[in-house]
Q: What sequence folds into this?
């Protein structure tokens, strides 16, 4: 297949921002592409020659590219750099230079997709003393037989910067459109099937071939392949431990360790390690390979856990940056193995001796996991877990996790299956929010619909000398009805707030109301952001009323100064 054909599509995609048009164009190309080239074309459309999880890299630095362009066009390195200064894109630089080159290479055969892809792949294997020269030869050979536009995209692909915006989602939808037909519902199903396959086999090149040759059946049948990475199940945020505890019939509570997800594949004696971003980190953690061989009692399996840098002196986790040093480290591994020891806390199993466990409920998966692990305490062990519905026990456990230096808890639905790639509500994560603030209510709106007659959407104010400045709006945390018994003793209801605030109404304009600064409420939130929308210049993100501070006057409330400080402090987190 002529490379020029692909280049035509690149050009169209570059000048067409509309998503649907991009999808149509890509789908047309995929449909016309012969099967033997489908994988190559699909990857090249994403600016790649290897799937994104592959360790192989083309590895051409900018300075080598300057040499390559200079050598293959006859312009000086200085000219190339000047051009780069003007366009900020070596692709456009070479397009111009090849275009102006007076002498065309005679007898050059048209470039094919195969040739471009294979030459670029070759680059990844080149190492050693003469590697720069060899790389230069290989890319130059392509450029010498390219027309200006082709040269532009060869250079961009070589540098890993295609600049035409074929995001993952666009590729997914294009493959569905290329190989499946039907009404809206059927197309939704097709997209889902492509997505499922991609979660487990993260290589659109392969997926396109499967879709073309095996249809929906083949896509839906894609399962885990030991040794290859897949997209993992993700957690959803929950506003509070209380909410999370109410969500599932049967909950398991686990420490939310503050490290990095590690996915361990074992096939006999062979072990592979992947991160959640599909990076292969097998070489970086030789001691972990040892733990797996020693402690995992299964021939083949795929298990997941959280890995931490661990300070064996204090018994506490090390800050995350130590662990990330180890993840990135490619040489002198033995030295860091000693300097930054690791600990793995296992929490899931998705494959065991030939059987996928995606459809097995979480509670049973945990049992399977326990049955095959012989823990090595402090190094390779099961994630701390309790199973309870009792709020007091849950709170104790939460405090214990925080005291141990971990991030919080994950509450898991014991009856839920494993959904690769998805942030579904099967796992809920809880982390402490910032310290609560005591703020004054200085405005509100009359409610509508069910809430007619009630005040809601409260405007929060912080103190600045004698005046009160707006720092956010809040509607969350206010209940329609108090819960019964002691549990509800501090609940704040709309009726109660309306009754308390009515006497302080200063002015009304439509639904908007100004209120004299009298009533103080305690507010929890996630973050203090700078915001031009409020007179204080700050806004609380996700604020929620915790309780009314009957014991505080407006003059005791928190100040603008404090909010400013909190904003500065959190930037360092
Ligand atoms: P987040 O990164 O905030 O979306 O939280 C989800 C991440 O928490 C997962 O991807 C894991 O890396 C990590 N994590 C820590 N402890 C656990 C646990 N016990 N179960 C599941 N995930 C955990």
A:
């Amino acid at each position: 297949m002529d490379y020029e054909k692909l280049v035509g599509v690149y050009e169209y995609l570059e000048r067409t921002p509309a998503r649907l048009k991009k999808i149509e164009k890509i789908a047309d190309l995929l449909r016309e592409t012969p099967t033997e080239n489908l994988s190559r074309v699909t990857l090249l459309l994403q600016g790649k020659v290897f799937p994104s999880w592959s360790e192989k890299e083309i590895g051409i630095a900018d300075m080598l590219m300057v040499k390559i362009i200079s050598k293959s066009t006859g312009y000086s390195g200085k000219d190339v750099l000047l051009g780069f200064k003007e366009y900020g894109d070596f692709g456009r630089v070479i397009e111009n230079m090849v275009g102006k080159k007076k002498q065309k290479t005679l007898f050059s055969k048209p470039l094919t997709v195969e040739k471009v892809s294979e030459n670029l792949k070759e680059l990844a294997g080149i190492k050693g003393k003469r590697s720069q020269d060899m790389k230069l030869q290989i890319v130059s050979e392509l450029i010498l037989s390219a027309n200006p536009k082709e040269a532009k995209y060869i250079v961009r692909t070589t540098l890993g910067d295609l600049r035409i915006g074929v995001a993952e989602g666009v590729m997914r939808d294009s493959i569905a459109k290329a190989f499946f037909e039907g009404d809206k519902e059927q197309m939704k199903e097709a997209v889902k099937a492509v997505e499922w396959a991609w979660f487990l086999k993260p290589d659109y090149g392969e997926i396109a071939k499967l879709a073309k040759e095996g249809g929906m059946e083949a896509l839906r049948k894609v399962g885990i392949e030991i040794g290859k990475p897949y997209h993992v199940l993700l957690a959803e945020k929950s506003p509070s431990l209380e909410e999370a505890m109410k969500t599932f019939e049967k909950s398991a509570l686990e420490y939310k360790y503050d490290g990095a997800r590690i996915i361990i594949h074992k096939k006999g004696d062979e072990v592979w390690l992947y991160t959640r971003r599909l990076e292969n980190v097998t070489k970086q953690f030789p001691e972990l390979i040892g733990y797996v061989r020693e402690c995992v009692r299964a021939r083949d399996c795929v298990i997941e856990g959280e890995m931490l840098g661990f300070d064996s002196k204090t018994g506490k986790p090390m800050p995350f940056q130590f662990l990330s040093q180890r993840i990135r480290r490619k040489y002198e591994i033995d030295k860091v193995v000693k300097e930054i020891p690791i600990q793995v806390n296992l929490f899931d199993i998705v494959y065991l001796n030939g059987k996928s466990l995606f459809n097995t409920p979480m509670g049973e998966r945990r049992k399977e996991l326990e049955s095959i692990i012989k823990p090595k305490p402090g190094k390779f062990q099961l994630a701390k877990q309790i199973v309870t519905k009792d709020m007091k026990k849950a709170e104790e456990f939460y405090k214990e996790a925080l005291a141990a230096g971990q991030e919080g808890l994950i509450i898991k639905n014991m009856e839920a299956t494993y959904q690769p790639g998805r942030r579904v509500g099967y796992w809920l994560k809880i982390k402490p929010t910032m310290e609560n603030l005591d703020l004054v209510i200085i405005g509100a709106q009359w409610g509508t619909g069910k809430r007619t007659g009630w005040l809601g959407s409260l405007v929060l104010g912080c103190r600045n000398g004698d005046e009160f400045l707006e720092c956010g709006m809040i509607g969350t945390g206010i209940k329609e009805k108090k819960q019964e018994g002691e549990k509800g003793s501090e609940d704040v209801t709309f009726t109660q707030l309306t009754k308390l605030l009515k006497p302080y109404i200063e002015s009304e304009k439509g639904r908007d109301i100004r209120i004299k600064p009298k009533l103080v409420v305690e507010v929890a939130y996630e973050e203090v952001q700078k915001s031009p929308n409020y007179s204080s210049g700050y806004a609380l993100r996700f604020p929620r009323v915790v309780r009314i501070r009957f014991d505080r006057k407006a003059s005791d409330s928190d100040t603008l100064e404090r909010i400013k400080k909190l904003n500065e402090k959190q930037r360092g987190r």
Notes: The longest helix spans residues 204-221. The chain has a mean pLDDT of 92.
